[in-house]
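User: I'm curious what two different proteins look like when written out as structure tokens. Can you demonstrate?

Assistant: Sure. I'll show them one after the other, since each token string lines up with its own sequence. Here's the first protein:
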Amino acid sequence: MASINLTEQEIAKTRIEVRQEKLKHQSNLISLEEELKIEKKLLNSRHSQLKRELTRLISILKVENVRMRKSEKHGYRAMVSELREIEENLLPTVVGKIKDTRKELQGLPIAEPKLLREKQEQLKRKKEAALAIAEVIEARSDNVSKTDKILIFVTDNSSSDLDSGSNLAEILDGITPQFISEMQSDHQDIKVALVINRPIYDVMSSYRAYFRGININWVALRTVEKIDSDGLLDILSSIEEEFLIPKANLRIISNSSDVSNNIQRHGMSAIKWTSIDSKLYVEVINDPNDIVPWINEPTSHKLYLEQAVRSDFRRKINGGFRQVDAIDIQYFGRYFKKDDTRSFGADGILTQAILRAKHNHYSENIIEGLAEIIKTYPKNIWVTCIPDKEGKSHRMRALLASLSKRQDLSDYKFADNFFLYFNDSSFSTKGLNAQQRKEKLGEVLQRKQEITLAGCDVLLLDDVVTSGATLKRGYECLLGMEADNVYCIAIASTVNN
């Protein structure tokens, strides 16, 4: 194994740390010296005072030839005792402390090379462990066949402190070493790889449980300074070429929305992992049990209404959350902009359905999916929607009417747009910034003054949420009508590139 040495950067960093520590220590010593000098001065002053008092007392006694009273004798003895304590103990102790601090300060220069040696040894141990693990991974990589699938964890760990004990389970909450090992035991064709923006010795130190003492078939480990789109694509291409694996057999799961979005746009199967309670913005997996089905059939894992539009109601009702000024907006699909290639592919089937609904009506599949979503809310809740503008397609009014006719929703109350209205049908929020959009909607989206919702809960529906300003304004209006609780949902959320 090649010799392992500190890099110039690491040496420079260490020297800076030593100098900072030296200056700090030096400053403390100077303060201590000053304190001790003051203490010595006070002791000297007290020493002189005692000597003067004793001399005066003795002179008086001699001149007047009087005998000391008992109390006077006691005071005299106390002063003599204090004087001896100062002379024999206190003054020498203070002087000794001053000498010790000066010696300590003089010895500081030797701390720098000592600390450098310690850091060298520490780094050597880390790198040796990392290289040992890397050799294991290299040996296991011979085990990959062309038909295998490689699950690549891409962890953007730029805000995590690995030295504090962070590990993969904390970054990708719920994906434990045991889970990966059991997954591979049940599915021999699944191999795993890791891409992370940390030095290899830091990774090995903090992720030890994933690489030692457990049977995980790691086939690749790539550490980078920064995870960006171009660099990541190069890494994925290198893995593809190294194992002669077709691109279609790569699966990327990341803790970063940007990573999963960018990889998807380049035609590869990528998804974001997040905890259930997180605010979601892109297609996600939030249950470890969903990982293998997604690996086997990536196109099948869509948000709920993306499944529904395909007549697939087998999956649980999963969606995402947008938070706008502390208002939670739940959505159940993605809406891609026209310049996004996904809007015309397999991912964009819901986008196309929403676009068709602007000139027609929503399909029965979407209506059925929304019915299942509504049934997750308490019975007797009012269900309404953001009103259609006058002169525009009445798709939302028609959607509510279709929902209200369903027998399985007979316990719910439907308000056909009559809670809210637009007083200006010609307005548009295009080209407005967030503040301008808020102000404009505050002017044009109004509540009907004659209606009160005291004691009622309301479910407010919109088709596509982009900034969330419209639903936020609707939320405020309904609260202004004294509604107890207002829940905001949308068919889809616009995916920003």
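Here's a second, unrelated protein for contrast:
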Amino acid sequence: MTTSIDSAADHTPPRAISDSVSSSVSSSGSGAEQPETAKPQKAQKDLIATRPVPLTARGLMKFLVPSLLGVSFFLVPFSVGDTINIGMGLMADWLKATLGSALPAIAVAVLCLSVILTGFVKLAKPAWARQGAAHELFDVSPVWFAMRALGAIFALMTYFQWGPTQVTAAFTGGVMLNDLAPVLLTFFFFAAILLPLLVDFGFMEFIGSLVRRPFRAIFNLPGRSAIDATASWMGSGTVGVLIATQQYEQGFYSKREAAVIATNFSVVSIAFALLVTSFMNINHLFVPFYLTVVIAGLIAAVIVPRLPPLSRKRDDYHEPVGCQISEENQSDCGVLRYSLGMAVARAEHAPGPLKLVKSAGFNVADIFLGLLPVVIAIGTVALMLAEFTPVFTWLSYPMIPLLELLQIPHAAEAAPATLVGFADMFLPAVLAKDIDSELTRFVIACLSLTQLIYMSEIGALLLKSKIPLKIWELVAIFVLRTLITLPIIAGIAHLFVF
């Protein structure tokens, strides 16, 4: 769902705040809990260069032209009127405006088609779905089939407004169907098509080789993970998850690296940060606010991966492809020359137009038929728990003494807002909006942006992906990020802001 100032993929407030804010997410794979499907692939190890190649005008152009196009679509922010957006977001906005009110109906049709095709493949086992992409997409486990069915049911109930209010309300099922689904359909339609420009023509190799040493030293991650953080910062956290997922499935991230990157580098965009500060009436503090978010997020990215459950992840690579990464400079040339050579080597082995079209088609189908139902199902359930049950209030009781220890005013009132972000990132802003203390609103706003794991979008994406993360691990990472960043945010607020 987009807003008047965020036209990317970070989304708008769930409850009835659409009066004040105009309301307007992929990974591929078969699910973290399912056995990974060893989709037949050619020996990519023989295709992906591990050493730089001589620089030629043709090779440099093959690297530079697609990569610069990818950078312009994903990493360059534009100011359009009073909005901030990226090139791909502008294209998604155009498609969203063109389709308009038809998008929720399209989403319902897509969800129903997903259930019908999945059920048909599971029961009839047609020849066209016994192997390959169709098999991977539709021959899913009973758990994921049930998730697709539940997503379709929730969407139908919300669209036709029949059934319990807990499902059909504007701030539960309405958020998922009318706000988030249109963004997923439009934003990731273009993401699936354009992402190869950023990742398949050498740009990841170029940046990865340039910043390999600091990223290995500080975060114990490949240098190319810097692209995930930048794409998230400029576009949205869901773009970062999409890149991490694809890099893992192509053998460029290990299981540990993919899990760390997806849960610690999928930061929210500047546009969404502006939305939060505006909604909570702390817009005049945006600069210290965002600096605080960056500092706390970087510290968390250093600490959290060194603690369980992330520290226990193995550095094994996706079995069908194995390890495809080589950022270590083993040549005598300088870093820049080596990085360019690696980029050109990758560009020389980039997929051809036909393969790119086929891959884009599968990615779009996986987003629409595989991801959308899961996001709708998990997101609706999470929002129902947050809006209609006292679960998050009960869970937040231990946070009251911690907030009091940190000298945060209105601790009891603010406590639920510290944990409710697990359901949806905007819920903390909704709960804390009317707290009198500006310091408290500042702390809650910063915290909501550093927690990163929220089930209405990022959590559902990660569970659907092949990255090996279970729901209890997402809960643990969310809690760790909360406990680590909250004292940092409070300290900065007391010492430098208020």
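A detail about the second structure: Residues 31 and 182 are 23 Å apart (CA to CA).
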